[in-house]
Write a structure and sequence with these properties.
There is one protein chain. The chain has 236 residues and is an alpha+beta fold. It has one domain: 3-methyladenine DNA Glycosylase, Chain A (Roll). Helix content is 20%, strand content 25%. The chain is built from eight helices and nine strands. Strands 1, 2, 3, 4, 5, 6, 7, 8 and 9 form a nine-stranded antiparallel β-sheet that branches. Strand 2 and strand 3 form a beta hairpin. It is globular and about 45 Å long. The two termini are 15 Å apart. The relative contact order is 0.21.
Length: 236
């Protein structure tokens, strides 16, 4: 695969995250949390633009960070969406303001991270499916009970929504309804000016309804996306 882990500016980004506010020192690498307006759009527009951004979890002095490489969009009238049957106590976040965390439990053992999109009162969301680990790899490995013996083992950490959530310690009790756009949140999405990646749209996977919709977006050639990988790096 024609893909390389991009580490340019990573140390500076880590230092910026460790400070109380982004861009605090003159000349330092700046990062910004994505604003609510970013998520206040059609999930099909938001999803591909999330790729290349960084999901961050702050755990005291420890920082976990992963570049977003795979997401799926879900719409209000989407048979595969949790909001399709109407508003409930479980899925209420999807009907609320944009930029908030929606976490659900699946298969009796996996949590999945989502973010709400569209204006308050209109359901829409995006599922985070895979990350490229950047910071806090050792902490992620411990959370996943995975031994990292080489670069290929990194794919075991955050490739897939269940793995991603476990690596970042994401649970419904801890994170549901958190504001993903808040600088005060311990879980947010950051942008530190990295170049936009090449994006490929594919059919969604792991569902049984509306499977033909091309609402899954991946970073082309990334070894960290979930699903089966073909010789040319395209997945499905």
């Amino acid at each position: 695969m024609e893909y390389a882990i991009k580490t340019s500016g990573l140390k500076q980004f880590s230092a910026a995250l460790s400070r109380r506010s982004p861009g605090q020192r003159p000349g330092a690498t700046r990062y910004e949390t994505l604003p609510r307006s970013f998520f206040n759009r059609d999930p099909r527009l938001v999803a591909p633009e999330l790729l290349g951004k960084v999901l961050v979890r702050k755990q005291g002095r420890k920082i976990l960070a992963g570049r977003i490489v795979e997401v799926e969009a879900y719409l209000a009238d989407d048979p595969a969406a949790h909001s399709f049957a109407g508003r409930t106590a479980r899925n209420a976040v999807l009907f609320g303001p944009p930029g908030y965390v929606y976490v659900y439990f699946i298969y009796g053992n996996h949590f999945c991270l989502n973010v709400s999109c569209l204006p308050d009162g209109t359901a829409g969301g995006i599922l985070f499916r895979a990350l490229e680990p950047l910071l806090g790899v050792e902490e992620m490995a411990r959370a996943r009970c995975v031994e990292i013996a080489g670069p290929r083992d990194l794919q075991k950490l955050t490739s897939g929504p269940g793995r991603l959530a476990e690596a970042f310690g994401i649970t419904r009790e801890r994170d549901n309804e958190k504001d993903l756009t808040s600088k005060k949140s311990d879980l947010f999405v950051a942008d530190y000016g990295s170049p936009a990646p090449k994006v490929i749209a594919t059919k969604r996977i792991g569902i049984t309804k509306a499977v033909d919709h091309p609402f899954r977006f991946i970073v082309a050639g990334s070894p960290f996306v979930s699903g089966k990988k073909t010789l040319n790096g395209i997945v499905g």
